Amino acid sequence: MARVLLCTLPFNRQPAWYIPVGILYVESALRKNGIEVDFLDIDGLRLKKEEVLSHVRSGDYDIVGVSALTTLFNYAGWISAEVKKIKPQAKVILGGILASSNYEYVLKNTAIDVCVLGDGEETSVELVKAIRDGKGLAGVKGIAFNGDDGNIVVTASRQPLKFLDGYPINYGLIDMRRYVRPGTIISARGCTNNCNFCYSAVAGIRGRSAEYVFNEVKNLAVNYRVRHFTFLDSYLMASENFVTALCGMIKNLKVKWDCYGRLDRAKPSILRMMKESGCIRVNYGIESFDQTILN
């Protein structure tokens, strides 16, 4: 049985800000498929590098998975090199925006073995099983890796997840008190637009049900006493039906929340309803005031 470790990577800010929901979804998918996983919250615990290495040594891990933004490239490179020093045969897997947008540079300039491209839940399950069972990686969709000849291999693309409700987060894996915004929620992925400068440049939104999102908010509010929530969706206001249903449910929880939106969907009636349910801020992306540039 392969020993698997998933790690958050530390941002250069004190203290930690948002809960690492992305890699927690991956942990949920692995656990759901019977794969035992250790979780190390380097960011939340503010672990020093030697503390990280001590944990890696003690676990004798066969697979180490990390998720990173592009700003965490240096740390991802450092931890991958150190894992290889401790256990050369271990596989280091990278997910997140850094992997999806810069896999060629990552694979050429770090000790990372595999980059997961796009949604990580299903891909990570197949990838871990392939490594565990000694199978080749070419049959795993949605990854990039260095082939035996030194060339980068990009496997067949994987369709984005359409059903997002099946991966409940285990909040017991992290210390909620360490985070400024423990009420971190992602209710949907993608966007209705396809801007070439945006990391979410995947046309179409894949949303979770309002009921599922509400239950997640309620769980955090009741069991962890979270009173402020941040929806990290690129475009929470894209669906009026979803926003209407969600606002109607969370109104009675008496919590505060904020989100991201677009001005072309900022209808007074919707904004009024959001405010009545506890919304205190909407973050708008104003790319330019020049329509020529916007076009």
Protein model, in words:
- With 295 residues, this protein is of the alpha/beta class.
- The protein has two domains: 4-154, 3-Layer(aba) Sandwich (Rossmann fold), CATH 3.40.50.280; 182-284, Alpha-Beta Barrel (TIM Barrel), CATH 3.20.20.
- The protein has ten helices and 15 strands.
- The protein has helices at residues 21-32, 42-45, 49-59, 73-86, 97-109, 121-132, 210-223, 240-250, 268-276, 291-294; strands at 4-8, 16-18, 37-41, 63-67, 91-95, 114-116, 143-146, 152-154, 179-181, 183-185, 188-191, 204-207, 228-231, 256-261, 279-284.
- The strands form four sheets. Strands 3-1-4-5-6-7-8 form a seven-stranded mixed beta sheet, with helices on both faces.
- A hairpin with a 5-residue loop joins strand 7 (143-146) and strand 8.
- It is globular.
Please describe the structure with a list of short key phrases separated by commas or semicolons.
295 residues, alpha/beta, Rossmann fold, TIM Barrel, 2 domains, four-stranded parallel beta sheet, 21% strand
Provide the CATH architecture of the largest domain.
3-Layer(aba) Sandwich
Named CATH topology of the largest domain: Rossmann fold
Write down the overall geometry: globular
DSSP, total strands: 15
**Order of helix and strand elements from N to C terminus:** EEHEHHEHEHEHEEEEEEHEHEHEH
